[in-house]
Amino acid sequence: MAEQRNSNTLGLLLRELLKERSLSMRKFSELTGIDTATISRIINGKRKATPQHLEKFADCLGVPLIHLFEAEGYPVEQKQEESDSDIHTSVDAIQALLKSSNVYDDEQFSVADVEQKLESYGLYAQTEEGKNTILKDFDEKIQNVGSIGPFISKLKELYEKFTLGKGTIFELTIIGSTLLYFIIPVDVIPDYLFPIGYLDDAIAVQLTTKALLKK
């Protein structure tokens, strides 16, 4: 009974989001790469969406992944501070996804891992080689990902600021570190591990956005 109720909650949410965005189920299927029959069964509460399904739904619809996890009934720990909540609950969602995945052995994921990687990329972003890597490879990486949603939109916004030099040296350095994190395929969760490989990139974008807001 509980699973059916959670599925219905997700189904109602998906119906509302599709209606708001004027998306047909067929178009939604094309954008997510999930067949129409599977989407229909999820929306009608006849099957439980996997974390992989939810990650694709969130990216396509431009909604926080954590909201879909909650709607489908996946356990998510709530945090106190709102500014940190999105990041930490996203980490909880990633942990759940890693546990359900058969392609990644290390189920332990932490924000500290991403922060450490961003710090090293920040140094690289200040070099001519790092800057050239961003300018040369960003558009191609975006095309390869072939995705939509706030994660990709924010990256494009950061890329525009970087190329136009909009910001202080500090701001451009942390923006550059995030762009390199996205471009370079071997990071905390390697990008080739589809569909989980870009979840840590989303965390990197959140961390950078938070840092920029503090300045």
From TrEMBL:
Q: How does it sit in the membrane?
A: Multi-pass membrane protein
Q: Does the keyword Transcription apply?
A: yes
Say if the entry is tagged with keyword Transmembrane. yes
Which CDD domains does this entry report, sorted A to Z?
HTH_XRE
What Gene3D superfamilies does the annotation carry? lambda repressor-like DNA-binding domains (1.10.260.40)
- Cross-referenced SMART domains: HTH_XRE
Which keywords has UniProt assigned to this entry? DNA-binding, Membrane, Transcription, Transcription regulation, Transmembrane, Transmembrane helix
| Coiled-coil intervals | none
Q: Where is the protein found, in the record's own terms?
A: Endomembrane system
Q: What is the protein's major site of localization?
A: membrane
- PANTHER family found in the cross-reference section: FELS-1 PROPHAGE TRANSCRIPTIONAL REGULATOR, PTHR40661
UniProt protein name: Helix-turn-helix domain-containing protein
